């Protein structure tokens, strides 16, 4: 039996996490990039986005009134 397809919220959370990790991997080779405030903001925003999406998924899994 084939596994159930993932809901869009799970797919988007995984994509955002993957993009964040990919960007960090690329940026880690450039020393000067960490001096840019925009890099810090982008990292915070993407990390918070993944965190919020993950919390939403956890609440969905727990069901109403349990999260």
Describe what you observe in this structure.
This protein is elongated. The chain is built from 2 helices and no strands. Helix content is 69%, strand content 0%. With 67 residues, the protein is mostly helical. Helix 1 runs antiparallel to helix 2.
Set out the fold topology.
Layout: H1 8-27, H2 37-62
Largest sheet: none
Overall spatial form:
elongated
**Elements, N to C (H/E):** HH
Low-confidence stretches: none
Query: What is the tally of helical segments?
Result: 2
Number of strands: 0
Main structural class: mainly alpha
Query: What gap, in angstroms, lies between the N and C termini?
Result: 31 Å
Q: Which descriptors would you attach to this protein?
A:
69% helix; 0% strand
Task: Provide a short characterization of the protein structure.
The chain is mainly α. It is 69% helix and 0% strand. The longest helix has 26 residues, at 37-62.
């Amino acid at each position: 039996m084939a596994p159930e397809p993932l809901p869009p919220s799970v797919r988007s959370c995984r994509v955002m996490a993957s993009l964040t990790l990919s960007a960090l991997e690329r940026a880690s080779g450039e020393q000067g990039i960490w001096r840019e405030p925009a890099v810090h903001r982008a990292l915070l925003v993407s990390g918070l986005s993944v965190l919020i999406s993950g919390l939403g998924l956890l609440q969905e899994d727990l069901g109403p009134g349990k999260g």
